[in-house]
Amino acid sequence: MKFASSEGATQDYAQAAVWYLKAADQSHALAQFNLGVMYARGQGVAKDDAKADVWICKAAHQGDAGAQYNLGMRHHRASMGALPIAALESKLEAYKWLHLAAIQGYKGSESAFECVALTMSREEVADGEHRAVAFAAANTKPHADSDRG
Q1: Torsion angle of C-alpha atoms 78, 83, 88, 92, degrees rounded to 10
Q2: What is the pTM for the complete model shown?
Q3: Which of 63, 99, 114, 145 has the fewest other C-beta atoms within 10 Å?
Q4: In whole angstroms, what separates CA 101 from the centre of its chain?
Q5: What is the CB neighbour count within 10 angstroms for residue 132?
């Protein structure tokens, strides 16, 4: 969006948020991710981590690599300060999302995913791998069903 671009003399984050919301409500993954980042940073909207999580998660589930990386890093940070059972769940989710972003070649995701894996047991890595594969399988649409021409 031109309103939130770093190019140009003025940045109108509030206007960008309005347009991102319109696109995000129509399931546009990049708009959902950008809107989530705006909520996380308080750019053009009131800072709201819960709304940031909702929009970033929606974009990640639609396959946006940037959102998957962001979500993976959020889970990774959460795993470091959580109780053991919650830390494990966050670590497994971090592995899954960072691995999915790495598969798409998203910058920094490969090293982040490997860093998380180094803190996991073989069983945990296998579980994380299973989650990534299951997500990818459940979210792969045959080309015939695609609305791209």
Answers
A1: -20
A2: 0.84
A3: 145
A4: 8
A5: 21
Please calculate the CA angle 25-28-31 and round it to the nearest 5 degrees. Answer: 85
Considering all CA atoms of the chain, what is the largest pairwise distance in Å, rounded to the nearest integer? 52
DSSP 44-93: SS---HHHHHHHHHHHHHTT-HHHHHHHHHHHHHHHHHS-HHHHHHHHHH
- Using CA atoms, how far apart are residues 101 and 142, in angstroms rounded to an integer? 20
Per-run averaged pLDDT (10 residues), the chain, 149 residues: 49 90 96 96 95 96 96 93 85 96 95 94 95 90 43
CA–CA distance, 149 with 23 (Å, rounded to integer):
21
How distant is the alpha carbon of residue 136 from its chain centre?
A: 14
